[in-house]
Amino acid sequence: TDTFQSPDYYLVDELLTGEQKLIREVVRNYVKKEITPIIEDYAQRAEFPQQIVQQMGELGCFGPTIPVEYGGGGLDYISYGLMMQELERGDSGVRSTASVQGSLVMFPIYQYGSEAQRNKYLPRLANGEWLGCFGLTEPDFGSDPSGMLTSFTDAGDHVILNGAKMWISNAPYAAIAVVWAKNEQGEIQGLIVERGMQGFSTPTTHNKWSLRASATGELVFDHVKVPKENILPNVKGLKGPLGCLTKARYGIAWGALGAAMDCYDTALQYSKERIQFDRPIAGFQLQQKKLAEMITEITKAQLLVWRLGALMNEGKATPQQVSMAKRNNCEIAITIAREARQMLGGTGITGEYSIMRHLMNLESVITYEGTHDIHLLITGMDVTGINAFK
Ligand code: TGC
Ligand code: FAD
């Protein structure tokens, strides 16, 4: 484990409980054993490592904050964050799979679902028997999901769903999809659509240069008959999906930090070993500037998510605070990945090291769950009281 320590310049470990450190260690060891050795090949081949679904289920990475009675971990938010950090130290796509399953599929079923829905779906999502996906984005409505066209009409004991979702993580392998669609009154509601329902298909999205080890697809609904018992009964309006996004964005803030840590660790070690002009490149001031800036930004980001996690645990974190951490940590991670890549010279562009894969992955991470621009405007609205969207 010695070569795989977190950078921890401000002794943030002292702020963690024994249980939180143990959880981090378990996930870190899993990533070292099962993810790091295989992920580069899967990413190069643009293939989803399906075995990780069951593995992460067994490990408790799906729905760690969901109560134990529904198969969740019953853990606190800092434990959840640390899990995401360690998964994304391995690969952003692996963390994506866990984020979607826990925060975007299990959370809405737990928070907005009926008791029957909770009992039917949550235990099997928690243990990885079923993979889920979350359909909000559409071809013509990404940053502004309120305009969505996907809709359903009443047909007695069921509804008829029509429309399409795009850019959906996990879609090609998902057993169920939590889909956001408008009812006949134009109100947004959540429906659980199951694979095998007639008229429901999940075409794969090809040719991505980013998140290549994560499967992305569309959700197409052509007069799909969905039983009314599959509608999430306890929420209406955009606050339903946005509430899920708050949980997932929180996990991404920690996850992006994990990717940044891996890039920093790699660049630091490489720079001490790589000799040019008869000395390690780590001895050059320009390389030290890069490393000094990286560790400074990582340290600030660690403190940001630790404090945010404490606020989440107390139920006091606002969606706007989550937004700031998501944006900041994605931004510092992608900057660190770019600088770290340069420090490895030509070697840095190959799959021999993880950095180029992280850098390409982070282009998705800084875009999904609200783009960098959208999160800037959320903060702008919060501090000025003026809505720049409308
Ligand atoms: P607006 O009028 O501001 O809000 C509508 C209602 O929602 C409430 N709300 C929130 N609730 C919880 N959490 C949040 N983050 C919330 N933001 C807003 C709000 O209070 C209001 O409630 P109520 O009771 O008054 O009805 O809505 P708007 O239409 O103006 O939109 C605001 C905007 C632009 C910030 C929002 O649309 C937005 O965040 N857009 C970005 C879209 C986005 O993030 N899409 C992500 C798709 S999923 C994904 O990318 C998964 S990738 C996963 C992976 O692979 O890891
Ligand atoms: P657009 O909204 O068209 O934005 C284009 C550009 O315009 C961006 O730079 C944006 O910042 C800017 N812009 C937009 N509005 C404004 C404004 N008001 N002011 C200033 N600038 C603005 N979605 C899901 O529902 N489920 C998933 O599982 C999922 N997984 C994804 C996986 C991957 C790999 C990717 C790439 C995306 C995924 N998404 C998912 C979709 C993702 O959430 C959207 O791509 C994202 O919300 C942006 O929407 P868009 O791509 O339509 O871009």
Automatic annotation (TrEMBL):
Record pathway: Amino-acid metabolism; tryptophan metabolism; Amino-acid metabolism; lysine degradation
Required cofactor names: FAD
GO molecular function, one term: flavin adenine dinucleotide binding
Keyword Cell division: no
Catalytic activity reported: glutaryl-CoA + oxidized [electron-transfer flavoprotein] + 2 H(+) = (2E)-butenoyl-CoA + reduced [electron-transfer flavoprotein] + CO2
Keywords: FAD, Flavoprotein, Oxidoreductase, Transit peptide
InterPro entries the UniProt entry points to: Acyl-CoA_DH_CS (IPR006089), Acyl-CoA_Oxase/DH_mid-dom (IPR006091), Acyl-CoA_Oxase/DH_mid-dom_sf (IPR046373), AcylCo_DH-like_C (IPR036250), AcylCo_DH/oxidase_C (IPR009075), AcylCoA_DH/ox_N (IPR013786), AcylCoA_DH/ox_N_sf (IPR037069), AcylCoA_DH/oxidase_NM_dom_sf (IPR009100)
EC main group: oxidoreductase
Keyword Cell membrane: no
PANTHER family the UniProt entry points to: GLUTARYL-COA DEHYDROGENASE, MITOCHONDRIAL
Family: Belongs to the acyl-CoA dehydrogenase family.
Protein name: glutaryl-CoA dehydrogenase (ETF)
